[in-house]
């Protein structure tokens, strides 16, 4: 059995490696083509107007490899395993292995152990390597092409403080972790706005505070008064003050601002969990980030589903040249899983589904398909 295990593991791992390499080469080529128009240009927002060169584009494309690897790993596992199982069945090698004592449950156990290795690899890449390299890639882009920003208004964050609530708007984040276009709205416990602070830029400090630069603060003071009929009314007194620098105490960290400006699917699971807790603590909707959190939890487990789905291909009867069609079917299954994984995330967000259900639904669906195929092709036939 040790010899059989080595044979299957060597063949499957080699096949998955070449499939992954082919997919990565294709994605890197498309990424490089997308970067070509920006080569030789500089942005007015970049550091010292540095020019974006070919080596910078190659570095940026290289930093995207872990993200693509994380996304492609379940599909590569499926296609690579299907190819090996189908080839073993076509050459009658798997029939010889079956007569040597490799029953369906033992074969399934071998593949699940192999799938577990890829689960660990997928988790390590998606939770540690990919977030680090993606942040480096975005900062590289910010350095040579401009600032990190989203939409027309930037990112919005909310924080509850002891005597007031604050809503913060950050238009952009530069490569040196400096924020631009900062606006801070403060409200009292009744929900009335008491001040608005605008700053051209801001920097993070280590003492749980931001250092605002070139600020303009507008204070709204509500004063009770009496009108001619002796009725109590309120009037607002507006005062404006300006300062070159101003310290603003806050618990909003650089990681939280980066999370709000970057894609949530590129974050580590722990960072996503902390950000979800921050949103809930401040009364903000966290549906989108909760779905992404559960997707990060369940996505590596899809490698197990893929090897489970590939095993029935070893029990099919092949004619000459029919392996290619089954491998093509595996490609279609992998693409459909990738699409469903994204579609269910959007539908779950729009329909306010339970976040864990929206994230786990594609995996559960393909698990049911795998169980059906395993029961019909392997156990019954």
Descriptive labels:
single chain, 381 residues, alpha+beta, 6-stranded antiparallel sheet
Descriptive overview:
The chain is of the alpha+beta class and 381 residues long. The protein is built from 11 helices and 6 strands. Helix 3 (65-90) runs parallel beside helix 9. The two termini are 24 Å apart.
CA(first)-CA(last) distance: 24 Å
Poorly predicted runs:
none
Secondary-structure element pattern, one letter each: HHHHHEEEEEEHHHHHH
Name the shape in a single word.
Answer: elongated
State the major sheet. Answer: 6 strands, antiparallel
Counting DSSP E segments of at least 2 residues, the number of strands comes to 6
- The overall average pLDDT, rounded, is 81
Q: Tell me roughly what share of residues is in helical segments.
A: 55-70%
**Radius of gyration from the alpha-carbon trace, in angstroms:** 28 Å
Biggest sheet, spatial arrangement of strands: 1-2-3-4-5-6
**Percentage beta strand:** 15-25%
Helix count equals: 11
Summarize the structure.
This protein is an alpha+beta fold. The chain contains 11 helices and 6 strands.
Break the fold down into its secondary structure elements and pairings.
Layout: H1 2-35, H2 54-63, H3 65-90, H4 93-99, H5 104-145, E1 155-160, E2 165-173, E3 178-187, E4 193-205, E5 209-226, E6 232-249, H6 254-261, H7 269-281, H8 287-298, H9 302-310, H10 323-351, H11 355-380
Antiparallel strand pairs: 1-2, 2-3, 3-4, 4-5, 5-6
Helix pairs in contact: 1-2, 1-3, 2-5, 3-5, 3-9, 3-10, 5-9, 7-8, 8-10, 8-11, 9-11, 10-11
């Amino acid at each position: 059995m040790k010899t059989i295990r080595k044979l299957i593991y060597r063949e499957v791992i080699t096949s998955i490696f070449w499939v992954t390499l082919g997919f990565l080469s294709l994605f890197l080529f498309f990424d490089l083509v997308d970067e070509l128009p920006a080569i030789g240009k500089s942005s007015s927002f970049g550091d010292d107007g540095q020019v974006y060169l070919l080596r910078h584009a190659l570095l940026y494309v290289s930093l995207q490899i872990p993200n693509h690897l994380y996304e492609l790993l379940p599909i590569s596992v499926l296609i690579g395993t299907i190819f090996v199982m189908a080839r073993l069945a076509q050459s009658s090698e798997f029939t010889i292995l079956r007569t040597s004592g490799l029953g369906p449950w033992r074969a399934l156990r071998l593949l699940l152990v192999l799938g577990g290795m890829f689960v660990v690899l997928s988790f390590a890449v998606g939770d540690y390597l990919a977030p680090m390299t993606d942040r480096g890639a975005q900062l590289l882009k910010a350095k040579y092409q401009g600032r990190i920003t989203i939409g027309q208004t930037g990112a919005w964050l909310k924080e509850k403080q002891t005597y007031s609530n604050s809503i913060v708007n950050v238009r952009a984040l530069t490569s040196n972790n400096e924020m631009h276009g900062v606006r801070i709205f403060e409200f009292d416990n009744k929900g009335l706005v008491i001040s608005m602070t605008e700053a051209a830029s801001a920097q993070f400090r280590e003492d749980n505070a931001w250092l605002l630069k070139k600020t303009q603060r507008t204070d709204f003071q509500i004063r009770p008064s009496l009108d001619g009929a002796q009725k109590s009314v309120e009037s607002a007194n507006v005062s404006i003050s300006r300062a070159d620098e101003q310290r603003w105490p806050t618990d909003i960290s650089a990681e939280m601002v980066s999370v709000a400006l970057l894609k949530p699917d590129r974050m580590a699971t722990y960072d996503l969990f902390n950000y979800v807790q921050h949103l809930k603590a401040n009364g903000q909707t966290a549906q989108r980030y909760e779905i992404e959190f559960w997707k990060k939890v369940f996505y590596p487990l899809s490698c197990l589903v893929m090897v489970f789905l590939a095993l029935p291909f070893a029990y099919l009867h092949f004619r000459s040249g029919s392996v290619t069609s089954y491998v093509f079917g595996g490609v279609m299954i992998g693409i459909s899983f990738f699409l469903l994984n994204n579609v269910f995330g959007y539908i779950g967000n729009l329909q306010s589904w339970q976040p864990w259900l929206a994230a786990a639904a594609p995996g559960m669906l393909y698990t049911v398909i795998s169980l059906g195929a395993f029961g019909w092709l392997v156990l019954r036939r």
